[in-house]
Each structure stands twice: as structure tokens, then as C-alpha cells.
């Protein structure tokens, strides 16, 4: 069974590799801000974090699945799309992008607990057949250490790691030492909930173990 990851996230790629899956990688062509703005304008409201991540995960998976149908009509497998955002006290915290923003985030987060929301969409693609899609949102709470010093924050931000990840932190790299507790599927905080993915894959009639493909590199290219 072939697997295509509709993401260029190193964390999501690493997660799949750790569980025996080496996916084909195709970057989705989705303007995330424009998509969310259009839906919110049409509905006259602000999307909740759960709706936000699910919308983008579905759009990313759909975009790549459609392109595979055109560019690789013999593709037989699944496409995985995902999106994540961190919520603290009702405020949604995406990627900080700048060192100043990242440092301010960490000063606000230390000693507190927030929720990482992760949207998942899986599309079953088969030659000559309509695609099928299933989706779900997973969430995990993250508690940060209270005694993180300003010097530690500045040193962590200086590594550049927190600038381009949701919430300005990682649990599986340098940021892990500053996280006291995770409640929920820990892989959710890394980028995707593996248990949620397994459930979605099975909804499509695919057994998770058929995705294990590390010994067949031919499956990672078109």
C-alpha cells in the first residue's frame, strides 16, 4: 500500500518513519490564511481551533489527492494531510516566525497548560475510482515547566527551533526538556496522532500494518 504525505513537515515525516512508513512527499498548494479567511467571511464567524486545523488538513489532503489523480493515475494508496495549532487561554498560537514573538510566547507559557489541536485527513486514492476521505481532530494538553529562566528562553529561541512550529515549541527535540507533562497521545504534540491515523486508515478499509514499507524505497517516488 502506497502512502503520500501532503506535507513537508520534518516532524510528520519523522513520525511516520519511526512507525515503519516511508511516504512519498508532495507539498500541498494551499494558501492557508486565504482558505481560513474565506470560510470565516462566508460563515460570518471565527472558526474554533478544531475547525481551523480540520479545514486545513482536509484542503491539503484533497489538493494532493487531486494532483496525484492527474499526474500519477496509477497511484493506489492513501494521502495524509495534517495541520496543528496551539491554544492557550482561548488564544490560538500558530508559528511565531520571529525570535521576539517566540520569546514572548515562552515567557507567557512557562508554568501553564495549553492544548495542541491536530487535524487529520486521509484520502483513499485508487485508479479509476472516486476518492474517499475520512477525517478527525486529536488534542493533547501540554504543561510547561514553571522554573524556565529568561536565559534558557533566550538560548532556546536562539537555536531557531521554535520559530516555525505551532505554539513555538517541540516535544521531541530541544524543547522537550521544558515540557513537564503531556496528557493525550504524545505523537499529537509532535505533529500527528498516530493512533488517530490508524483509526482513520481502518475506516477506509486499509490495515495499518500494510503501510509498513521501509524496505521498499520504490514506493517513495512517482
Tell me about this structure.
The protein has 222 residues and is of the alpha/beta class.
Largest sheet composition = 7 strands, mixed
Helix content: 25-40%
State the end-to-end CA separation.
Answer: 14 Å
Query: What's the mean pLDDT score?
Result: 93
Structural class call reads alpha/beta
Question: Tally the helices: what do you get?
Answer: 7
Number of strands: 7
Uncertain regions spanning at least 5 consecutive residues? none
Please compute the radius of gyration using only Cα atoms. Answer: 18 Å
Strand content is 15-25%
Describe the global form: globular
SSE ordering: EHEHHEEHEEHEHH
Tell me briefly what this model is.
This protein is 36% helix and 23% strand. It is built from 7 helices and 7 strands.
List keywords for this structure.
36% helix; 222 residues; alpha/beta; seven-stranded mixed β-sheet; 7 helices; 7 strands; single chain
Secondary structure blueprint with pairings:
Blueprint: E1 2-5, H1 10-18, E2 24-25, H2 32-43, H3 49-71, E3 77-88, E4 91-93, H4 99-109, E5 113-125, E6 132-144, H5 150-158, E7 179-183, H6 186-190, H7 194-203
Parallel strand pairs: 1-2, 1-3
Antiparallel strand pairs: 3-4, 3-5, 5-6, 6-7
Amino acid at each position: 500500500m502506497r502512502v503520500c504525505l501532503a506535507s513537508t513537515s520534518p516532524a510528520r515525516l519523522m513520525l511516520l518513519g519511526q512507525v515503519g512508513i516511508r511516504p512519498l512527499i508532495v507539498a500541498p498548494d494551499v494558501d492557508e490564511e486565504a482558505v481560513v479567511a474565506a470560510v470565516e467571511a462566508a460563515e460570518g464567524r471565527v472558526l474554533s481551533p478544531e475547525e481551523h486545523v480540520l479545514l486545513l488538513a482536509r484542503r491539503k489532503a484533497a489538493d494532493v489527492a487531486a494532483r496525484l489523480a492527474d499526474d500519477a493515475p496509477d497511484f493506489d494508496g492513501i494521502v495524509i494531510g495534517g495541520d496543528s495549532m496551539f491554544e492557550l487561554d482561548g488564544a490560538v498560537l500558530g508559528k511565531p516566525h520571529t525570535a521576539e514573538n517566540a520569546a514572548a510566547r515562552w515567557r507567557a507559557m512557562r508554568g501553564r497548560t495549553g492544548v495542541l489541536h491536530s487535524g487529520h485527513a486521509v484520502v483513499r486514492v485508487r485508479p479509476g475510482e472516486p476518492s474517499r476521505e475520512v477525517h478527525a481532530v486529536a488534542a493533547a494538553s501540554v504543561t510547561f515547566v514553571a522554573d524556565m529562566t529568561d536565559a534558557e528562553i533566550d538560548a532556546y529561541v536562539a537555536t531557531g527551533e521554535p520559530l516555525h512550529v505551532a505554539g513555538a515549541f517541540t516535544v521531541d527535540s530541544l524543547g522537550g526538556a521544558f515540557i513537564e507533562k503531556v496528557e493525550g497521545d504524545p505523537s499529537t504534540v509532535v505533529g500527528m496522532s498516530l493512533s488517530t491515523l490508524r483509526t482513520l486508515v481502518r475506516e477506509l478499509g486499509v490495515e495499518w500494518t500494510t503501510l509498513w514499507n521501509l524496505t521498499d524505497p520504490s514506493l517513495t517516488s512517482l
